[in-house]
Amino acid sequence: MAEFKVVAVIGAGQMGSGIAQLAAVAGSDVWLLDKDAGALHGAKGSISNSVQRFVNKGQLSKEVGIKALERLKYTSNLEDLRYADIVIEAIVESEDVKKKLFAELDKIVKGSAILASNTSSISITRLATATKRPQQVIGMHFMNPPPIMKLVEIIRGADTSDETFTATKTLAERFGKTVVCSRDYAGFIVNRILMPMINEAFHALYTGVATKEDIDAGMKLGTNQPMGPLELADFIGLDVCLSILKVLHSGLGDVKYAPCPLLVQYVDAGRLGRKRGIGVYSYVKSPKQSSRL
Ligand SMILES: NC(=O)c1ccc[n+]([C@@H]2O[C@H](COP(=O)([O-])OP(=O)(O)OC[C@H]3O[C@@H](n4cnc5c(N)ncnc54)[C@H](O)[C@@H]3O)[C@@H](O)[C@H]2O)c1
């Protein structure tokens, strides 16, 4: 059974930074890679703040927190990942970009390493074709934010081996997560069900059924969800939601998944949600928190 002494995470955005934090807290040496030095700098700050919050709440000892931060290394050089036992990719939701990365990784990392993708919707089977190790390619879909959310959805590609599945499941459980397993169809379990709901909320707004506030309040209070669907879309990132809907639409071939024109327009306008300060809602950032206007 793989020990995962060295974990590499690629993409230091909202997902990758959280996954790197989980791995470091769980005791692995961690490389966090991003092509953008600014993203690495931001990730270092947000991981440090997040670990501090866990310590302040008594959910992590100060010693474990300090050691976790010491185990994290930041880089933009793929060669630094060559000793990784597993690489978890969390870059932009684009099949072409992910495939290119997987092909490069396949040449650099050791033969026994597992290549995992945190993709929200893209076929693991197709990502695996970019490598010569399809049996060691798997989907490891964390929820946002990874340090808090309890679920990891594991997706087996057509050639993923039992050994890779068992090792990846064990790692997710070492991170304190509950695992569900999905077959490799667009959107897997969670986004197959969640994204049509978010898309429908955009249609309700687009066609003037109700205000954004009433759509969110209706779903929050009426169906006992912690966040309304439009607020959740802002949290996930409207660009990420749009990419997933496009994958559902093309992968499942049903017009019901076609992205709402309003969602497309917001993304075209750069209104990507919380991470850009504006999406369906506007956000003001203060050093302590970003609040909804
Ligand atoms: N946002 C969510 O709620 C959520 C939830 C689950 C899964 N995901 C998936 O996780 C992945 C990342 O999403 P995110 O929200 O963290 O995105 P993000 O935009 O916050 O971060 C992506 C990061 O990847 C970096 N990057 C892009 N291409 C790269 C490359 N070729 N090499 C190295 N770094 C590169 C970018 O610089 C950026 O820092 C996507 O596949 C997304 O579908 C997102």
Please mark out the parts with pLDDT under 50 across 5 or more consecutive residues, or reply none.
289-293
Q: Main sheet: which strands, in order across?
A: 3-2-1-4-5-6-7-8
Order of helices and strands: EHEHHEEHEHEEHEHHHHHEE
Q: How many domains in all?
A: 2
Major sheet, described briefly? 8 strands, mixed
Query: Could you say which structural class the secondary elements and strand pairing correspond to?
Result: alpha/beta
Distance between the termini: 50 Å
How big a fraction of the residues is strand? 15-25%
The tally of strands reads 10
Report the average pLDDT across residues.
95
Rg, rounded, reads: 19 Å
What share of residues is helical?
40-55%
Bound ligands, named by name, code or SMILES: nicotinamide-adenine-dinucleotide
The total of helices stands at 11
CATH class of the largest domain: Alpha Beta
Going by CATH, what is the homologous superfamily of the largest domain? NAD(P)-binding Rossmann-like Domain
> What is the CATH architecture assignment of the largest domain?
3-Layer(aba) Sandwich
Structural shape: globular
